[in-house]
Write the structure tokens for this entry.
Amino acid sequence: MAEQAATSTQPATTVQVDHEVIGAIAAIAASQVDGVVGFSPGLVGNLGEMLGRRSATRGVRVERAGQEMTLSLYLVIAYGSRIPEVAQRVQERVKRMVEAMTGLRVTEVAIHIQGVSFATRPRNAASSPATGNGS
């Protein structure tokens, strides 16, 4: 009888998550980290934009093999941010959110700092001694 329960006649259900969806989840998760100002499309993305192609996952590259994936994020960071700390927080948040929302395993989140924005200060910079606020 236990053998009969193991061989169910219910059809198998598969869910396919598109790379664009995974990239959008990663981009939103990364943008919520203090110090991240935006994304840079990189060389391939710039060529695509010249050809009139815009993508919601600009600055995020997804490589998937079965149930595992690696993500590469091309970021612009706010001037005054501690880059290693921002990168680590982005890696942790992106991995957690993508895995939670897709059920897939993220094996690597590679962070590529493509620029620094001088227009936006990180939210925690006001209390930092590096800002020269006289404290």
In short: Residues 1-5, 44-48, 125-135 have pLDDT under 50 and may be disordered. The longest helix spans residues 83-102. The longest strand covers residues 105-117.
